[in-house]
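Ticket #4471: complex job returned nothing on first submit. Input attached below:
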Amino acid sequence: MIELLGNLSLAFSLLLAAATLAATVGGAKFESVRLLTAARVLLVMFTLLIVGASATLLAAFLNNDFNIEYVAHYSERALPFGYKLAAFWAGQEGSLLLWALVLAIMSSIAVLVRRGQTPGEDAGFIGTLTIVNGFFAALMLFAANPFKLIDEVPLDGRGLNPMLQDPNMVAHPPLLFLGYAGFTVPFAIMVGALVAGRRDNAWLGDTRRWTIVSWLFLSIGIILGAQWAYLELGWGGYWAWDPVENASLLPWLTGTALLHSIMVQQTRGMFKVWNAALFALTFILCIFGTYLTRSGIIQSVHAFGESAIGTFFLAMLIVVTLASIILIIVRRNVLQSEEKLESLAGREALFLATNVLLVLMTAITLIGTIFPVISRLIASQEVTVGPSFYNKVVAPLGMLLAAMMAMGPMLVYGADAGKKLLKSAILPVTLATVVLVVAYTRNFRDAWSLSAMAVVAVAGTAIVQELLKATLLRAKEHRENLVLAFVKLLDSSHRRYGGQIVHVGVIMMVVGIIGSSVFGAKETYTLKPGDTASIRDHTVKYIDIHEKRMANYTAVDATVEVTLPDGKVSTLHPQRRFYDKAEDANSEVAIESTLKSDVYLMLAGWENGGTVAAIQVIINPLVSWIWIGGIVLTIGALICLTPKFIPVKHAELVKKTSPKHNAASARRQVGPAM
Amino acid sequence: MTRIGIKLLVAGAILTGAVGYLGFAGAKSGWVYYLEVDKYVADASFAPQRVRLHGKVSTEQFSVNKAGLAANFDLHGHSRQVAVAYHGAIPDMFEPGRDVVVEGKMHDGVFVADVLMTKCASKYEGKPENAGVPATQPESKP
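Support reply: We reran it on our side without changes. The output follows.
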C-alpha cells in the first residue's frame, strides 16, 4: 500500500514538473505574469508531493515496513530511533530522495521570494529550477526507486552499516545535499539574468545570500564528514583525498571563488564572464561529484555501488555544461567588463589571484581524482595518484591562499592600493619576521609549520591593526566612545567583519591541519595487562579487556590509562564492536582531546582473551583547532547573513544609500571583505 | 598592451610554470600502477616498482596475527598468485576469500605490503548473499 502512495507522489510530481515547465515557457512567450505565477504555484505543489513521498519513506522506516526493499536493506527492528531516521539516506535511493526534497524546498522558497525584472528573467530562473527538480523526480521514478518492493519479505531488515551508526553521519549527508541543492538556486538566478540580457549587477545581490547559505552548508557538511572519518575509520586521519571526499571539495573550491569574485562584479562591474562561468561550474561540479561516485567509473574506498543513475547524471552533466557555454557565448555582449584593473596590489587583483588559485586547486584535484580514467584511456593501464600528489600540489597552493587571506584586511580598491598596502603591511610583516626568527631559534625547521606561523602572525596583526584604525577613525568622526565605536563598526558591515571571522576560522583550520600532519606520531604497541608504553611525552598503560552487551551490538572494551604530558591521567575505552546484523567487527576509537593535542587509541587486536592486546596510539597535535575553526567559520558566515543589529538613523541611511557616496566611500575606505 | 596587462601575463606565466612543475613532481611521487595479480606476475618490469595489487585472499594460505599486526597470505588472480607479507593494523573486514587491494613492493619473491584495503563493492550497499544470515565473528572473543 505504502509503496503505491510513494510511487504515485513521484509520478504526479513529474507531471507537475512538466506542467510547471510548460507554464514557464508560456510565461516567457506571452510575457504573461499570470502564467509565471501559475508556474510558481505549480512548483510549490511539486514540492508538496516530494515532501509527501519523503514522509512516506520515513513512515515505512518507522513502521519497519520490510516490504520495501530499501527499508529492508538499511534498517532493522532493534535500530535506535535516531538511526532509523539516518537510514533514510544511508543508501542511494534514499539519499537521492533527500537531495530532491531539499532541492524542492529551496526552489520553492526561491521562486516565492524572488521576482525578476522581466517575465523573461523569471522564466529562465523558474525554468532552470524546474528542469533540475524534474530531473530528480524522473531519476527516482525510472532509475533509483526508493519504493521498490522486495521479492521475499524478511522478518527483520539487514540493519544499518555500523560505520554509519554515528551522530556525525546523521548530519553529514543532509548538510552536503543542502549545499549541493543550494547551489542550484544561484545558478538559476544567473541563467535568468543572462536569458533576460540584464546588463546591471543588481541581480548578484540575490545570488549572494543563496551562495553563502549553500557554501556554509557544504562547508559544515565537509567538516562533519572529516570528523566522521576521524572518529569512525580508525586510522587517525580526517582527510584521505579519496574520490568521494574530493567530489565534495570541488564545488566548495569553486563556490569559495565565486563568493569572492561576485563582490568585485557588484562593486566594480568586473569579472562578469568569469562569474557566470563559476556559477555554472559550481553547479556542474555538484552534479559531477555525484556522477563520479555513483557511476562506478572511479574505484573508491567508499563509493556507492554501480548503477544506472550514472547515465542519467552524465546526460544531465552534458546538457548543463553545453547549455551554460552556449548561454555565456550568446550573451557575451552583456558580460563586458565595466572597468579595467588599475593596480595589482588592490582588492580586485587579490580577488582575481585567489580565484585563479582556487580554480587551479579545483583543476588539480579534478585531474588527480579522474587520473585512473585518464590513464586507462591514454595508456590502457590504470594508474592512481596517491595522497602525496595532492599534498605536493594542492597543499602549497592552499598555503599561498592562506597567505593572501592573511593580507585581506590590508587591501583597498583602486589605483593607489599598492602604496596603502605597503604602509599597512609594515607592522604585520615585522611581527611575522620576529615570530619566524624565534621559531627558528627554537628549532622549528619545517617549511609548513614556519609558513603557518607566518600566516597566523600576519593575519592576526592585520586584523587587529585594521580594527583599531577603523575604531579610532569612527570614534573621532562620530564623536563616540571607543567601545561604542567598536561595536557600531562591527555592526556597520556584517559582510566585511563576518567575512573576517570566517577567515579566522579557516586559519585556525590551517593551524590544525599543519599541526596534526607535521608533528603527529603513530605507533602500535603489543601490551600485556599492566604494561606501559611512551610516545611523545604521553604514557599509555594497558589495564584489561571486558565484554559489554548493548542494544544491537556486543563490544569488546579495552581499558587503557593515558598520562598526558602535564601529568593528568585519564582512562579511555577503545572498543571493537560486533554488530548483530553485520558480519564484520567495527572499531570504535577512544580519544582524549585537548587544545594542544589528541591522544587517539584504537584497539587493533588481542589474543587469548586479552592477555595480549595490540593498541594503536596516535598523537595528533592541534587537531581540535580544525573543529573549532569550523565552528568559528560557521559563526562568521551566519553573521554575514544577518542584517544589522543596531538600527541606522534616518539621516545616515539617506547618506549611505545615495549611490555617489557609496561608490566614493567604497573606494576611499575598503570594500566588503566577503 | 598595458603595463598591468604585461604584469598579469608574467604573473600568470610564473604561476602556470610553478603549478606545472608541482604537478609533474607530485604525479611522479604519487604515481602508482593499479594492477591485477595475473598481469603483475606476468610482467617482471613491475617488480622493482611500488604498485597497487588487486586480488582475492587465498582461503588456504592465510595466517593473521592481529596482536602482532601482521598477515601473511596468498593473493589470487584468475590463474596466478603472489605471496603477500603485510605489516600494519588489520582492517576489520579482512578475511579469506575477500577482495583486497594491497600496496607495496616485491622483496625476495614476497610482496611486502604496508597498505591493505578490503574492497567490498561499497560500504553503503548491502551484500545480498549474506542477507538475514547471522553475523560470523572472525575473532576470538575474551
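Confidence is low (pLDDT under 50) at residues 656-674 of chain A. Closing as resolved unless it happens again.
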